[in-house]
Amino acid sequence: MGSRVEAIAVYPAEKKENAMRKLVVALMAGSLVTWSAVSGMAQSRSGRNGSGQIVVVLKDGHRQSFNLSDVARIEFPGGGVVADAGPTPPGAPPRGHFLGKWEVGDGMGNKFTITLNEDGSAWRSLHRIHGRWAYVNGEARVTWDDGALDCIRRADGQDKKFAYGAGKRFTDEPDNVTQARNTSKGPV
């Protein structure tokens, strides 16, 4: 008897199924490798400076790192506070306390209004000036477009407005201190 050779027939449907299986496996493996690489890069970037630090990049490209525990606040010329790392004093009013329209004095016996909005915008009726405000250490600090500064804070159990002329900072001696009264029941 002669040897018998059997031919294994491969049908076109099986060829397509094997090709699809290989394609799916290759795509999944590629996705896993890409995801791992991206995740590793993100972790190495965030771990480079550690948490609790701020990095300042200067115009010439140099970088300087600071521990946040060493930073009291960040200020720019003109007295505009960008961020305050200090804790809010116990018993200080919450941010929402400052929202609305405030009746304040100008230091010469006249009154005007300051409006503090939820979005951080502010408006002063005296000379019709716009500005920005921030809740910092339990007080509302306003930087006006004309360079002046106002701060509404609780002092001796009462709300008061502290005014600082252009070129001064919130840490300087105020030009005047007057009573402040919120005339709104809530945000304007």
Kindly describe this structure:
- With 188 residues, the protein is α+β, with helices and mostly antiparallel strands.
- The protein has an eight-stranded antiparallel barrel with strand order 5-6-7-8-9-10-11-12.
- About 3% of the residues have low confidence.
- Helix content is 20%, strand content 36%.
- The N and C termini lie far apart (104 Å).
- The radius of gyration is 32 Å and the shape is elongated.
- It has two domains: 63 residues, no CATH class; 110 residues, Lipocalin.
Structural classification: alpha+beta
Overall pLDDT metric: 78
Q: How would you spell out the order of helices and strands?
A: HEEEEEEEEEEEE
Strand elements, count? 12
Shape: elongated
Q: How many DSSP helices?
A: 1
The strands making up the biggest β-sheet line up spatially as 5-6-7-8-9-10-11-12
* Main beta sheet: 8 strands, antiparallel, barrel
Cα gyration radius (Å) = 32 Å
Brief description of this entry?
Helix content is 20%, strand content 36%. The chain has 188 residues and is α+β, with helices and mostly antiparallel strands.
Question: Secondary-structure blueprint of this entry?
Answer:
Elements: H1 12-49, E1 53-57, E2 63-67, E3 73-75, E4 81-84, E5 100-105, E6 111-116, E7 121-124, E8 129-136, E9 139-144, E10 149-155, E11 158-164, E12 176-182
